[in-house]
Design a protein that fits this description.
This protein is of the alpha/beta class and about 240 residues long. Helix content is about 35%, strand content about 25%. The protein binds adenosine-5'-triphosphate. Adenosine-5'-triphosphate binds next to β2 and α1.
Length: about 240
């Protein structure tokens, strides 16, 4: 569902992303870890077609993002760290609006079913987004992905700033999408959540993918050690 072939992005003399080769298949959750400036957001922006690559290519559902920018967007849902929703519209109105943009017209009762599936409490359906916590806004983001029937979900630090319960709920929602076959790529600093939800984990540094793991094959302490070693924080590794 997601493939990058030697995907590279340079800004002047700075290589933000260096020959990235990555694959995320249907029903997989790939978590990208890496320090600030490692190239995680650049990867997501390239997959979204927001920026052109310097070389290499990115594919969504077998379509080259550069050549089929509009077509690839119909398969994608994107949840950044701070999801932009209309603060003065309710959850239902936002979902109606954004699913409409994606070409899906849902009845009010169907919109409610989707919000419920995304884990939003019913009492909040008709409340303005301006009254929502970050966790509730993220649920509306998941509802938009569900309404759009997205095949690919791109997440940029979606759990940062969420309390442990909200972060746990978010992880469960990702598992639900996974069971529907959605391919998810999530950039995160949250090793614990990555280990909880991921099927695959990659560690980036200086624009390069340094290590990859099948999540089930590595424990959380092993993952932390691998991360710290990759970052060359050797003195901190017990
Ligand atoms: P963070 O965890 O802080 O979000 P990241 O892993 O997402 O970091 P990127 O935002 O992808 O890192 O940045 C990778 C590199 O590319 C950094 O050196 C950054 O300064 C550089 N970079 C990103 N966007 C631009 C830009 N528009 N112009 C110039 N350099 C950029």
């Amino acid at each position: 569902m997601i493939i990058t072939n030697n995907l590279t992005k340079q800004y002047g003399g700075n290589t933000a992303l260096d020959h990235l080769n990555l694959e995320v298949k249907e029903g997989e959750i790939y978590c990208l870890l890496g320090a600030n400036g490692a190239g995680k957001t650049t990867t997501i922006n390239l997959l979204l077609g927001f920026i052109p690559p310097s070389s290499g290519s990115a594919f969504i559902n077998q379509l080259d993002v550069q050549e089929n920018s509009k077509a690839t967007k119909q398969f994608l849902a994107y949840i950044p760290e701070n999801l932009m929703l209309y603060p003065n519209l309710t959850a239902l109105e936002n979902l109606d609006y954004f699913s409409g943009i994606a070409g899906k017209t849902l009845s009010k009762s169907d919109l409610k079913i989707v919000l419920e599936e995304a884990g939003l409490e019913q009492e909040a359906f008709e409340n303005r987004i301006s009254t929502f916590s970050k966790g509730m806004r993220q649920k509306v983001g998941i509802a938009i992905a569900l309404a759009k029937d997205a095949k690919v979900l791109l997440l940029d630090e979606p759990t940062s700033g969420l309390d442990p319960k909200a972060s746990n709920e978010f992880g469960l929602l990702l598992q639900k999408l996974r069971s529907k076959g959605v391919a998810t790529l999530m950039a995160t600093h949250d090793l614990f959540r990555a280990k909880e939800v991921a099927t695959h984990i990659g560690i980036m540094k200086d624009g390069q993918l340094k290590q990859q793991f099948v999540a089930d094959a590595i424990s959380l302490p092993e993952l932390e050690k691998a991360y710290l070693n990759t970052m060359e924080y050797k003195e901190l590794v017990p």
